[in-house]
Amino acid sequence: CSTASIRIFAQVWGTCLGLGLALAIAPTAGAFEPSDLDRLLRTGACPACRLQEADLAGRTLSRGSPVNGRIAPLDLSNADLRGARLRRADLGRADLRGADLTAADLGAAELRYADLRGARLHGTDLSGANLASARLDEVDLRRADLRRARLIHTRLAGARLNGADLSEALLVRTSFLDADLSGASLRRAFLSETDLRGARLDGADFSGANLLNADGLTQHQLDQACGDEATVLPEWLRIPACR
């Protein structure tokens, strides 16, 4: 080979080697970023952060500096929190709009007044969580675990709760307006002044549930659901027995 050929080969090899190293050390799209976690813990704000699989269980997260004499709410809008461990975390009044919380662990978490509009909560563990006055309008809660969760004045209008487990949940003045509860379990749930107007209840299990003071409930809706002898209903309504 000529000297010129060897020089060209070396340049091409060096370019390919450099590109390979750059790709090897470049962060994978959507991967966990330790710097994002540090930023969240320091400032209480980390919109669009990559925090999937992060362990924030039991954390009392910083809320940043006071704004106009008030503590700024925690900002995790559009954050990637897929599979994050947030059990017992204090997320009260947090901005979680558009956040991806798919399969995250939010068991017993404090979520009072949290804004979760547009969030993804498919398969998320929210068992025992406090969601009082939270906003979950049109949220994806398919197959979410909401056992024993507290949903008082909670907004779930248009939410997708297909196959969700709301067994023994406390549902007081909760809005399920036009929500999809197909195949959901509401066994032994307590529904008081809960708005069920337009809600889809196909295959929903209300065994042992108290629906005595539910609002907007119709016989047509109940004909698509099921319950048992322990289901409490207004005297003019009936529900088929679960098989």
Describe this structure in a few short sentences.
The chain is α/β, with parallel strands linked by helices and 243 residues long.
Word description of this protein:
The chain is α/β, with parallel strands linked by helices. It is built from 3 helices and 6 strands. Strands 3-4-5-6 form a 4-stranded parallel beta sheet, with no helix packed on it. The protein has a two-stranded antiparallel ribbon with strand order 1-2. A hairpin with a 2-residue loop joins strand 1 and strand 2. About 7% of the residues have low confidence.
Individual helix count: 3
Radius of gyration: 24 Å
What level of helicity do the residues show? Answer: 10-25%
Strand content: 5-15%
Main sheet summary: 4 strands, parallel
* Spatial sequence of strands, sheet with the most strands: 3-4-5-6
Q: How do the helices and strands line up, and which of them pair or pack?
A:
Elements: H1 3-25, H2 34-43, E1 66-67, E2 70-71, E3 150-152, E4 170-172, E5 190-195, E6 210-215, H3 219-223
Parallel strand pairs: 3-4, 4-5, 5-6
Antiparallel strand pairs: 1-2
